[in-house]
Amino acid sequence: MANKTQLNDACVDTFLAKVEHPIRRENAQRVTDLMRNITGVEPNMWGDSLVGFGHLSYTYANGRTGEWFVLGVSPRKQALTGYIMQGFDDIDDYLGRLGKFKLGKCCLYINKLEDVDMSVLEEILHFVWHNMRGQV
Q1: What count of Cα atoms within 13 Å lies in the side-chain half-sphere of residue 107?
Q2: For the chain, what are the domain ranges?
Q3: Which fold has domain 7-129?
Q4: 20 to 30 Å CA-CA from 11: which of 44, 73, 96, 111?
């Protein structure tokens, strides 16, 4: 089964400007700006709601391949969702200092940015981006 969320030419800034909830919109813009500063690259839209930075190819054990981004963010209705494609195994000490959040397999769910220490979030994003640089 192919991944339905594909890289596309939609405008990131237009997408962010159309986020209805004002706090989600502001938080998504702040994290997008932070990721821009850390990565030094412009983001791309993936599907209709994911803002992604970088690009990597992967291959599963069964030989299936795919394309995805390294870091990403999406202003979901339930939470601001950060996508950390390397996962969280190597960043436990950062997570212990981050604040209030929930984790998924590669997702960092933040209700509002006031719940987390932004300097720690910046450290996490910087670490992940530079850790995966060889794969970007």
Answers
A1: 14
A2: 7-129
A3: Aspartate Aminotransferase, domain 1 (3.90.1150)
A4: 111
